[in-house]
Design a protein that fits this description.
Blueprint: H1 3-24, H2 33-37, H3 40-48, H4 50-57, E1 59-70, E2 73-84, E3 89-95, E4 109-114, E5 117-121, E6 132-136, H5 153-159, E7 163-174, E8 177-187, H6 188-194, H7 197-209, E9 214-221, E10 227-236, E11 245-254
Antiparallel strand pairs: 1-2, 1-11, 2-3, 3-4, 4-5, 5-6, 7-8, 8-9, 9-10, 10-11
């Protein structure tokens, strides 16, 4: 790895961490049916297959939210975009929370998601407005499940490959779609073993970097077994606080088969200069 590449990786990771830290350190910011699903082992297998089912669905629109409570203040970061599950490419517009006066402290951050990489534009921190920052997500202690302010939709699904327990809760409705609700716990280390090449190393990094490998989840599957909603509760160590921070990440998927056109930046469009703290 060249000195320039090392510089880009080191400072890129710092910028990604800033998406979350700006909020943490500031107060503003299927066929078998329900009867079969109610049996524990069947529920675990149904949940573990959810990521593969998304690949078959090809693509979807996505909404994300990341909630955390720190210092008595609840902070929520929201995102919206599209994702191609086959190519593992996505685009999200991430909105940081308002400051205490009600003003938006930052422009929306544009994020491009790719296997092993996160690209961010409008991050600030001294980065020119027309430049992208590239972060190797395998270098992040949370595998970019938390730090970027939005969980990669397919990574969220791949966490479920590590389901150790799952219970069928019941039939519910999400935006007019009948879904089956499952609740359980996934193991990040186990998820990494069965994950795709694009997320295996990132999930393995998260298994080592989070306060615990155990991730409680709630997932809602439609009749085709596709994820309509998934909510994870991560225990994240920020590095600026002595206690772990509880983070709830929610991903909503809809409009399956929607067109996705994600073009990753050329090398000349990626910023490799000094990034302000």
């Amino acid at each position: 790895m060249t000195e320039r590449q090392q510089h880009r990786r080191r400072h890129g990771a710092g910028v990604a961490a800033g998406v979350l830290c700006v909020c943490l350190t500031g107060s503003g910011c299927a066929k078998d049916g329900a009867a079969a699903d109610s049996r524990g082992r069947d529920s675990v297998e149904v949940v573990r297959r959810a990521a593969d089912t998304l690949v078959g669905a090809q693509s979807a629109k996505a909404r994300t939210s990341m909630e955390m409570a720190t210092g008595g203040t609840r902070v929520t970061i929201r995102g919206e975009g599209v994702y191609d599950f086959g190519k593992q490419l996505g685009r999200l517009k991430v909105l940081l929370p308002q400051d205490p006066a009600g003003a938006t402290a930052h422009r929306p951050i544009m994020e491009l998601l790719a296997p092993g990489a996160l690209y961010m534009k409008n991050r600030g921190a001294g980065v020119p407005a027309n430049k992208w920052v590239r972060v190797d997500t395998r270098s992040l202690s949370d595998g970019n499940l938390v730090t970027g302010g939005a969980t990669d939709p397919f990574a969220a699904a791949e966490v479920l490959r590590g389901a150790r327990t799952a219970t069928y809760v019941g039939q519910e409705d999400i935006a007019g779609t009948s879904v089956r609700h499952y609740r359980g716990t996934a193991d990040l280390g186990f998820a990494a073993q069965g994950a795709s090449d694009g997320h295996r190393e990132s999930l393995a990094a998260a298994a080592k970097g989070f306060a615990t490998e155990q991730v409680p989840f709630d997932v809602y599957l439609d009749e085709a077994g596709r994820i309509r909603k998934v909510r994870h509760r991560f225990s994240f160590v920020n590095g600026q606080q002595s206690d772990a921070v509880a983070v709830a990440s929610t991903t909503l998927l809809y409009d399956f088969g929607a067109p996705v056109d994600v073009r990753l930046p050329d090398g000349d469009d990626i910023y490799a200069g000094k990034i302000a703290e």
